[in-house]
Amino acid sequence: MSHIIRSPKRALRRIRLLLPVLVLLVQALPGTLLAEPASAGEPEGFSRQAVVDKARLLSEAPFNPAQGEVPQALLDLGFEAWHDITFRPEKALWKKERLPFQVEFFHPGLLYDRLVAVNVVDKGVAEPVPFDRAMFDYGNNHTLPEQVPSPFGFAGFRIGGPGNASKHFHEIASFLGASYFRAVASNQVYGLSARGLAVNTALPDGEEFPYFKEFWIEKPTRKSTSLTVHALLDSKSLTGAYTFVIQDGKTTTMDVTATLFLRMPVTKIGIAPLTSMFLFGENTDERKVRDFRPEVHDSDGLLIKNDSGEWFWRPLDNPENLDINAFQADNVRGFGLIQRDREFNHYQDLEAAYERRPTLWVEPVGDWGYGHVELINIPTDQDIHDNIVAFWCPRDALPVGVPQTYEYKLLWYNGGFTHPPLGYVESTRAGDAGDGGQRFVVDFRSKALNLLLPPSKVEGVVTCGAGAVVSEQHVEKNEHTGGWRLSFVVRPDQAPSALEKVLPKRKPPVDLRAFLKINDTTLTETWNYAYRP
User: Fold this and answer.
1) Which residues of 46-80 are buried (b: 16+ CB within 10 A; e: fewer)?
2) pTM of the predicted model, to two decimals?
């Protein structure tokens, strides 16, 4: 019997520049997704199980990526030239039917060297969407259409949301590049991305990038409030069958079901991976670049809800060296990359609109078992690179050949996601305190904290790992925000020698944790940071 884990969330160019795109194209499998007709002219209806079966069969064969099916002329396009190839809105799926959702397609080229097959499921029958050059306006690329072969495929697609079919195309989600996909809630711009799966991320032998090679989109009705998309995942080490039930609104939600089949053992599997960008923020002591903007980031922190009910906040960082952190999270109840800072004045970027970037929260369905949330901060000196990765990693290796199913919700929020029951971290600031020390100023806010006025005995609880000591700790009411401010200084536990002042040794980071309490009542989430002596 199969062992099933019942379980559970700036541009196009920047998201792809962080990670190399492998040359992997659609390799058609023998047969068809639909079963043989039960009787003449009566094909068996499509279901998610058909995708699961196809993933299982694919996993039993060696990985065999097709290559060379995208003409070199398309791959040699610059970003502006590729971006000049636009989909004709009147060709969108279901445009003339005025259904609550529409689908437009991306043209292969530039970095997008994989062809993906797209099918529409209507009344239980799956039919492929044929590529047609007439779907696209090639702009100033006048000679390109004649170099596009027939038959051909798409690079990906984007989805327009409810209530917009009769007017302008209102994009709510897109699937483009490997297993990457993005979404926005109302009044937002694209920011961070999600992925289908992370494999061996940040390991010495290099990361493996699974990709969605085929999609099935269920045709909505006029009364539909959600759109269902199925996807077939493939890579050297594994395959997968994914289902996304997408519903937009003030919060765009995706109910995700993923069934994985391993071809071979995998050292590290990342479930529900998220990818974002953090160049510098209010907690950045020394910037790597000169920039007119006070802050530049798509997300400013990692939030985790543990099985115990504890909420855990880790501000993001742009380190000097690759920084990998693992936070124990058995049966994790949620995690996400959060954009809490929603003030334009904190960014001053009229084009990027960082204050309108989504927050993405992953909410498991059921128990995921033993594991940890991993946060990877990658050094960067440009905002075109996504340098933040977060995912949940199971403690034990997944078995080869045994299906593993994970279920979860992805919640794309139009806000800072301040869900902890009482107080949340509004900002983290750091600066030099002299003698090798660093001063931290952490502001906590919430409606409940606003009601607490001096002389309320609000206390700060600060813990420090080996290698450093905490001093000058102070808690006070912040009359400008209504919240409470915790400040303290952290210094190495022993003064550097004369030699170390000239040739400083690289010391391991020291774990810091802090929260506010009153009497025996915890008032806030737990703030966490890595102090580097």
Assistant:
1) bebebbbebbbebbeeebebeeebbeeebeebeee
2) 0.88
